[in-house]
Design goal:
two-stranded antiparallel sheet, 8 helices
């Protein structure tokens, strides 16, 4: 019986071995012999904890890898955009359009800088994932902070790139003496640079939060972090309000411009209608002249032909005046007073020629 009890060991439970004693054919007594075994739960819990920890590490690493993969895809998209812009820049060099070339160059520089800095940042995130010196909690915390730094850096680079583009555009408009456009760009640039300085100050203090956390000063880190979060939201709200205000101002300028253009088109339409009516009159006059020429003979016919040539010359002079009046509409809208005066002088000379023709026709 002792050998049988040894063979009936069951892990994790109390071993119960039946001892059978036969009294007669129809009567069995079944007393139970209970043998306490050593409790294996501490070892089982340790194995389970190790398994769960390994699974947790794998799951965490998979999540971090997925995040890094998404960021890498975004980086690849920027690289593709850079290639397209560089190709466009090479094609634009032949056009000798300085404005277009300078703006493209500024955009290429901004994206190239963003790609370089982002590549370095993603390399640091990769290092955190692959590190052998961090446990799960340390890895997750380090990755989260590095990810926040990455997003802050990308946002700041976008603002600085936009600032550079505005500087280039402002310089080009100043070279062209376009004061209105230069003033608008200068105001935008001043506001943007002020936003950049505020953003840099906030980013600098986020690093103080990281230092406090590393020093186990969690209360200080939490207070400073909440304060910075509020400052970021304040800045974001003020930027949105300012953006909408600028959008309204820009829309108003566009409306005013459209009204001026509508007035210009109205004047041009009026001139075109005059030319059309003149062409109709000319066609009717020609029909009458043809009929008279059929009946005319000798000197009368020559006089009619002379009248036709004078009338034709007058017709073309009127059309030339109309074309100059249309051009004058555009010149006046651009505020070029010198060219407008030249056009008006030419129109005056042509009108004088028409009066001389009228005098010949009256003879």
């Amino acid at each position: 019986m002792p050998d049988l009890m040894k063979r009936l060991h069951v892990c994790g439970k109390l071993c119960t071995i039946p001892a059978f004693r036969k009294n007669n054919a129809n009567n069995f007594s079944t007393p139970k012999l209970t043998i306490p075994m050593k409790n294996p739960l501490p070892l089982t819990a340790l194995l389970l904890a190790s398994t769960l920890l390994a699974l947790g590490q794998d799951e965490l690493k998979a999540e971090l890898e997925e995040t890094l993969f998404e960021l890498t895809e975004q980086l690849e998209e920027r690289k593709f955009t850079l290639q397209e812009l560089e190709a466009e820049f090479e094609g634009a060099e032949a056009e000798e359009d300085e404005f277009h070339l300078k703006m493209l160059e500024a955009e290429v520089d901004g994206i190239a800088n963003s790609i370089e800095r982002s590549t370095e940042s993603l390399g640091r995130l990769r290092g955190i994932i692959d590190s052998k010196d961090l446990d799960a909690e340390q890895r997750e915390s380090a990755f989260a902070w590095a990810l926040e730094r990455h997003h802050r850096m990308v946002g700041l680079l976008e603002l600085e790139s936009e600032s550079h583009r505005l500087e280039v555009e402002l310089e080009l408009h100043q070279q062209d003496d376009d004061e209105d456009a230069a003033d608008r760009l200068e105001n935008r640039l001043d506001r943007l640079n002020a936003r950049i300085e505020k953003t840099k100050a906030i980013h600098s203090q986020w690093e103080e939060v990281a230092v406090a956390r590393k020093a186990q000063q969690h209360d200080k880190a939490e207070r400073l972090g909440q304060s910075l979060w509020i400052r970021e939201r304040d800045l974001e709200v003020s930027v949105q309000l300012e953006h909408r205000k600028l959008e309204i101002e820009e829309t108003r300028r566009n409306v005013d411009q459209l009204r001026r253009e509508a007035d210009m088109l109205g004047e041009i339409l009026s001139v075109s209608r005059e030319m059309h009516l003149r062409a109709q009159d000319r066609a009717a006059e020609w029909t009458k002249l043809k009929a008279r020429m059929k009946e005319a003979q000798g000197e009368q016919k020559e006089e009619l032909m002379e009248q036709y040539h004078l009338s034709e010359e007058k017709f073309h002079l009127h059309n030339e005046i109309s074309s100059l009046r249309r051009e004058l509409v555009f010149v006046s809208s651009e505020g070029d007073e010198g060219e407008a005066e030249e056009l008006e002088a030419i129109i005056g000379d042509l009108e004088l020629e028409i009066r001389e023709i009228d005098q010949q026709l009256e003879k």
